[in-house]
Amino acid sequence: MTYERILSLLQGTMHHKCNTADSASDISNFIAGDLMSDILTHEDEYFVLVTSLSTDQTVRTADFVGARAVLLVNGKKPQAGMLKLAQEINISILTTPLRMFTVCWLLGKELELEGHRP
Predict the structure, then answer these.
(1) What secondary structure, in 3-state letters, does the chain show?
(2) Cα-Cα-Cα-Cα dihedral sign, residues 19, 4, 110, 13
(3) Rounded CA separation 17/83 (Å)
(4) Is there a contact between 60 and 87 (Cβ–Cβ < 8 Å)?
(5) Using one digit for the tens of pLDDT, what is the confidence trace for 76-90?
(6) What pTM did the predictor assign?
(7) Cα 106 from Cα 96, distance rounded (Å)
(8) What is the CA 4 to chain-centroid distance, rounded?
C-alpha cells in the first residue's frame, strides 16, 4: 500500500514526508496502539504505527521498531518536537480525523483487498 492510498482512504494529511516515501509502496501492515511498551514487542517490517500519541517519544519508538511512518488518529496534530525529530530520523508523519477503530477497520479491509493478511 502507498502513502497516497492511505491518505485517500483515511481523509489524511501528510505533515512530514520522509525521503523514501515515494518508494514505500510496500506497506503491508499497521500496528495500532497507545502503549509504546506494547509496540516495542512487535516484530514486523514495512508497517505504519497508528496511535493517538503525538509526542517525540512516539517517533523514537517508531524508529526503534523500524516503522515506516507514524499515523496519528482522532484529529491529533503532531507537536513541534515530534515533527523536528521525524525530520531528523527520516520518518513520515500522517494524520487523520478518523477514530482509531474506524482507521483499523478501513486499513484492514484495504489490506484484504490487496491480498495481505490484516
Answers:
(1) CCHHHHHHHHCCEEEECCCCHHHCCCCCEEEECCCHHHHCCCCCCCEEEEECCCCHHHHHHHHHHCCCEEEECCCCCCCHHHHHHHHHHCCEEEECCCCHHHHHHHHHHHHHHCCCCC
(2) positive
(3) 10
(4) no
(5) 999 999 999 999 999
(6) 0.90
(7) 12
(8) 13
